[in-house]
Each structure stands twice: as C-alpha cells, then as structure tokens.
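Q: Hi! First time doing this. I have a protein sequence and I read that you can turn it into a structure. Is that right? Here it is:
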Amino acid sequence: MIEYNAQSIETLSFRDAIRTRVAMYMGSADNMGVLQCIRELITNSIDEATMGFGKKITVELFPNNLVRISDEGRGCPFGKRGDGTEALEAIYTMAHSGAKFNDKVFQNVAGQNGIGAKGVALSSDYFQVWSYRSGQCATLKLEKGIKVFYEEKGCQLHESVSGTIVEFIPSQEVYNLEPIKINFEEVKKMCRDWSYLSKGISFILTDHTTGESVTYLSKNGMLDFMRENADKALHKTPLHITLTENGIEAEIVMEWTNSRTETWHVFTNGLENSEGGTSLTGIKTALTNFFKKKLKGDGSPDV
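A: Yes, that's right. Below is the predicted 3D structure, encoded as structure tokens:
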C-alpha cells in the first residue's frame, strides 16, 4: 500500500496546472477547448474596440493549426512593473494578472478573471505576441509555456500605429482527447454573432488552408441580428430599448412573429448565456406584469 502523508501533497506551478488540467481553465481538453482559446483572444480585442480603441479585428487560420489574431487597440502594456517583472510576461504567464479587475481601465468587458489569455499562452506549443504602443514594439515568445524570447525596440511602423498581434499553435499534448482540427465555421459563427453585439466593428476572417475569406460588420447591431434570424414580424416596428443604470448598459430588442415557438438570445458582456438567466427572467416578469394590468387578469410569461 502507498503511504498517504504530508509528502503526498504536491503543488503544481501555474504552467503545469494549465497543461495538465486544461479543462479547468479552457473548458475541455478537445477541440472545444481550442475554440475557447480563439474566443478568449478575440474577446480581448473586442474589449479594446468596445472601449473605443480600434474598429477592425482580423482572425486568420494557417496550416498546422496556427492561429493569428490582430487588432488596432492600444497594444498590451509592456515595460517593468513596480516589482521588477515585465508587464507583458505578467499578462500572458502569471495567474490573475490584468487590468480588468475594476472599472478604472476597462468597462463592460467579457474577461475579468485574468486567466483567459494565459490559458492560451501556456497551453500552446508555440505562442508569440507583438504589442505596438507609442512607436515602440515588444515581443514575447513562448514554447510549451516557457519563455524563449523577449524584446523591446523601436517600431518601424508609423508612431500612431498601435495594436496587438497574437499567434499560437495549440498543443496536441494538452488538447489530447481528439486530433486538433479548428472548425472555421465555428469561428465564423462566433464572429458573426459578435458583430451584432459590437456594431461598427469589422471582423475580417481568413482561412488560408482553403482560401476562404469573409467580413462581418453590423451597422444596426442587435436590430440586424433579429431581422436576419427572426420569422416574419407581426408588427412594423420592433421594440428596441437601450438604457444605462449605475454604469451598467442594457439593450433589449424584441418583436412578435408568426412563429409558434419562442426564440430568445441573451448576451452578457459579449458572451451568450445559453440558459437565459436572470436577464430573461426579468424581461418575462416585466412583460407578464404589464399585460396582467392591461388585461385585468392572470397572465403567464410562457403564454
């Protein structure tokens, strides 16, 4: 019998924890986990654009599962932090490091736990990021989650150019439940939905393995989403409400159609709530109370 004592208790490093228990961080150790990696990086770029920095996000797939995501945001901060560590390394390799833990720098953003991009970086065979800020460029390269290169230098591009470029190849050793195969259709669906949630932002997607390229840009946001996905409307003007309270923004788009089934989509900070949650419950309750008053009788939110 193996003895169970104090020497049996181990502590994994953050890197080893991600590479051996990736499902805890990216949801699963299969192609859905790889898709989550892409989602994490794109939402970081969306957060920048939502804050008013950049209007174009580019996603490219290459042979051998290489993924490249580029934006025109402020660029990730780099340089020495107060404790002497490099900011760019902290962003991509140190747990719970980031600028989204309060609303001083970011507001209404998708990722607020300081894990997502690090999960991508540390679970990849190859990961490299280039950050352009104020005429300077910083580059960090990792292999299997270990730093192999870091450099800061003057940027050859125009001083006004800023943004972040990330490349990565997910590790088959980590995502080991099935052969890695990135589904371009899934990436397209994610970005198509995000274009409705982030009106005015262009998502430019290219699959270099097939030559397919597509751009998503919505001018009317969720109104476009509803018009393109709903059945024939029973009234001319859809219900469209936007409001802000205590720093929280909400948008509601609704219409009655000739369909006999109810269809709803709920998004919070750019991510879809597949179960609906309290947002859907609140809307149903408000509608039920409204019609109960109008009808002077009982009503059900499911009617």
